[in-house]
Specification:
The structure is a homodimer. Chain A has 2 domains: about 10-180, Rossmann fold; about 185-390, Dehydroquinate synthase-like, alpha domain. Chain A has helices at about 20-30, 40-45, 50-60, 75-85, 100-110, 120, 185-205, 210-235, 240-255, 265-280, 280-295, 300-310, 320-340, 355-360, 380-390, and strands at about 5, 10-15, 35, 60-65, 90-95, 135-140, 150-155, 160-165, 175. Chain A has about 400 residues and is an alpha/beta fold. In chain A, strands 2-9-6-5-3-4 form a 6-stranded parallel beta sheet, with helices on both faces. Chain A is globular. Chain A contains 15 helices and 9 strands. The interface of A and B includes residues 240 and 251 of A.
C-alpha cells in the first residue's frame, strides 16, 4: 500500500425522495443562491427539476438555471455558465442530472473563481486554487461525479476531451434517489454499468504491492455491479438493484475503494478521443476498449488478471493454468458486456481504419509520451488496441 | 438498503512518518493552538509525542498537553481537560494514542462547548450542539475512533461506561503511520483485531434487506483482518499487515462499509459493563462475548450466520445444512480468536457467577428495556449470554 491522503467531504443524502430534501440541506450549508445546471430536458419532463426548485423555494434558497448540457459536455456552455454565475452572484453551482450536467457544473464552479480561461485547468496549464461549492442531484448511476475530484469537458474548438482533478471538484452535498434512475433507457443503464466498472478497473490493475484490503473492496463492488446491473435492466423498478448501482457508482470513483494504489487511466484517455470525435457514449466506448486493453496488457501481470478472472468474473480457479484462466476472465467480461446489449467494436460508432491514426494522435499522453502506469502505453500500443477493437 | 445520510469529513494522512506532517496539516486547518491528550507515557517513551510536538513547533502551532489517560478512560481526566482547554484557550484537541486517548480528546472537545456537565452527553440527557475540532495521531489499530462519530467514557462515580454519538465527534484530521503500531505487545494487537471485527459484526448482523454491496464490503474487510491479524502478530514489522489492519480498523467504524443498514450494538453494550467493573480490555471482552452472542442469536436468521460462515470464516459451502455451517462458522471464529491468544471466558477477567446479575443490571438498555435490534435482547437474554461466556 502506498502512502496516501484521503479526504472525501461530500455529504450524501441517499434514499427515496432525496431530491425533496435539497432546500433543507443546501440551507444547512449557509448557501443562499444556486445556479441549477441540467441537460436536454429529461429532468424537466420527469418533474425532478420542479421538485428540486420547490424544495429550494420552501427553504428560501434562490436559484437561476442553465439547461442544454449535452452528453460529452462542451466548453461553450461552460463559458456561458461562468458569465451567468458571476452576473447572478450565485454562491454554489448545482448539477441536476448525470455526469455531463455535474461535470459542467464543476467546470463553471472552478471557472468562476479562476482569473483566466477556465480551459487552462483542463489543458493542464494551471491548477485550480479555489472554486464555488458544488452540489449534485443525481439522476444517472455511471460517472461517479457526485463525489469524485474530477470533471471532463470537450473543447468545442479543438474537439479535445480533457479532464481536471482537484479537491475543489469534490461536491459538498449530493442528493441521491435511486428511483430517479428507473426510467432511463436500458442502453443508458448499461453504459453506466460499464463506466463504473471501468472506474474500478483503472484502480484495480495496479503495480502497487500489498493491496489486499483495497483488492477486496474493489472485487466486492465489481461483483455487486455484475449482479445488480442485469437486474436493473430486467426489473426497471427494482429499488434494490438501482440503489446498489447508484452507491457502487459513487464508491467506484471517489477513492473509497482504492486509497494507496497507483492508478492507470489509459483506457479512459483512449475512450475520450473516440467520444469527442464520434459522439459516442463514454461507457459504451469503455465497454469496447477494456477487454482489448486487458488482452494487450495481460503478460505484464498474468497473476493479477487471473485473480480478476477468479474473484470477479467467476472463472473456476481449478480450470487451467494462470494464463488460460486470465483469458477466460477477459472473455467472461466481454460476454457480460454483450449480455447488457453494449457494443463490441469501434465500428459500431462509425470509426473506420482511416480514423485510427487521428484518434491515436488525440489521446492525452504524458510529457513522456505515454498513457497510464500499469504498463505505460506508447503510440504504437494505443494504435494496436484501437485496431484490435475496430 | 435503508435511506441514509453519510458524511465522513475526516482528512486522512496515511503512511510512513505521517506524524511528522502534523504541524503542516494542522496549520492548513487554520488552527493555532492545540491540547495534546495522551496516555500513560508510551508515546513519550517511543518518541512519537516529541515528533508531533517538533512538527507543531516547526509549523508555529502552539500546544499544551494532558497525559495520563487510562484504558477504559475515566471522566475525571475529562473534567480536568475541559478546564485546561478553556484556560489555555486551545482551538482544537488532539488525541495521540489509541482509542482511549482519542475518546478522552473527543469528550474534552465536546465538553468545552457544552454549557452543562459533559456527562449529560454520555448519559443520554443531552445531544452535543457544538464541539472543538478534533485531531488524532493514531498509535493503535483497534477502536476506529480516528474517524468514527462515537466516543466512550467511564464515569468514575457510578463506574458506568457510556458512549455518545454525534457528528461533532468526527475528527477533522487523522495522521496514521502503521509503523507506530509495530512495537505494541501481541495481546494489544490481538485485542485490536477483535475490536475492529466486532465493529463490523455490529453492522453485519442486521435485519435490513437488500444489502448486497455493504455485505460484500464488510466481508472483504473481515477477510483482510483475518489474514493480516495473525501476520502482524507473527511479523512484528510487516508494514503490509500493520497497514491493512490500521486502515481496516478505520473503515470498520466510520460507516464506510455499512451505510443504509440497521446496526446492533448489544454486544458492545454488554462488553462495556465488564470492562468498567473488571478493568478488562475492550477487545478481549468482545472476543469472549461475540461467539456466545452469535450462538444465542443463531435461530433468528440462520441464513445470515451461514453466509458469515462461508464468506468470512471459510466454511465449506457444501459441508452440510445451513445451521451446521452456521455453527461451524461460530466455532471457526472462536478458533481464530484463540489462535491470537485472546481469552475465551469471562472467568479470565475474574468475573464470577455472583457478578452476573450486577453486570446484567448495568448494560445500557433502551427505554424499552432492551439492547440492540437484530433480535433485541432483554435482561434474561443478557444474563444467559454472560452465563454461557463465564
Amino acid at each position: 500500500m502506498d502512502a496516501f491522503v484521503f479526504h472525501n467531504p461530500t455529504r450524501f443524502v441517499f434514499g427515496p425522495d432525496a431530491e425533496a430534501r435539497t432546500g433543507e440541506e443546501v440551507s444547512k450549508l449557509g448557501i443562499g443562491k444556486v445556479l441549477l445546471v441540467y441537460g436536454q430536458g429529461s429532468v424537466v419532463r420527469s418533474g425532478v427539476l420542479a421538485r428540486v426548485k420547490a424544495s429550494l423555494d420552501a427553504a428560501g434558497v434562490r436559484h437561476c438555471e442553465l439547461g442544454g448540457v449535452l452528453p460529452n459536455p462542451l466548453s461553450g456552455l461552460v463559458y456561458q455558465g461562468i458569465e451567468q454565475a458571476k452576473a447572478e452572484q450565485v454562491e454554489a453551482v448545482m448539477g441536476v442530472g448525470g455526469g455531463s450536467a455535474i461535470d459542467t457544473a464543476k467546470a463553471i464552479a472552478l471557472g468562476v473563481r479562476y482569473p483566466g480561461d477556465f480551459w487552462d485547468l483542463y489543458a493542464g496549464k494551471a491548477q485550480a486554487a479555489d472554486g464555488l461549492p458544488i452540489i449534485t442531484v443525481l439522476t444517472l448511476s455511471a460517472a461517479g461525479s457526485e463525489s469524485s475530484n474530477s470533471s471532463v469537458i470537450t473543447n468545442e474548438q479543438s474537439m479535445l476531451k480533457r479532464g481536471t482533478r482537484t479537491e475543489f471538484n469534490r461536491p459538498r452535498l449530493s442528493l441521491m434517489n435511486p428511483a430517479l434512475t428507473y426510467s432511463l433507457p436500458n442502453n443508458q443503464k448499461a453504459n453506466g454499468v460499464a463506466d463504473m466498472m471501468a472506474h474500478i478497473f483503472e484502480r484495480y490493475f495496479t503495480n502497487t504491492k500489498d493491496v489486499t484490503l483495497s483488492d477486496e473492496l474493489c472485487e466486492g463492488t465489481l461483483r455487486t455491479i455484475i449482479t445488480a446491473g442485469p437486474k436493473a435492466l430486467a426489473e426497471g423498478e427494482s429499488y434494490a438493484a438501482h440503489a446498489d448501482l447508484m452507491w457502487a457508482g459513487t464508491l467506484a470513483h471517489n477513492d473509497t475503494l482504492s486509497p494507496g494504489r497507483q492508478q492507470d487511466w489509459s483506457c479512459h484517455g483512449m475512450s475520450h478521443a473516440v467520444s469527442a470525435r464520434f459522439g459516442a457514449a463514454h461507457g459504451a466506448v469503455l465497454a469496447v476498449l477494456y477487454p482489448h486493453w486487458m488482452q494487450h496488457q495481460l503478460d505484464h501481470d498474468v497473476a493479477r488478471f487471473e485473480r480478476f478472472a477468479v474473484q470477479v468474473m467467476g472463472v473456476d480457479d481449478t480450470s487451467g493454468d494462470a494464463k488460460s484462466k486470465a483469458e477466460a476472465g477477459i472473455r467472461a467480461l466481454r460476454t457480460f458486456f454483450n449480455s447488457l446489449g453494449l457494443p463490441q467494436t469501434l465500428s459500431e460508432f462509425n470509426v473506420q481504419e482511416k480514423d485510427l491514426e487521428k484518434l491515436t494522435d488525440e489521446a492525452p499522453y504524458s510529457a513522456q509520451g505515454t498513457l497510464g502506469f500499469f504498463r505505460p502505453l506508447d503510440r504504437a500500443d494505443v494504435l494496436a488496441i484501437y485496431r484490435a477493437a475496430l
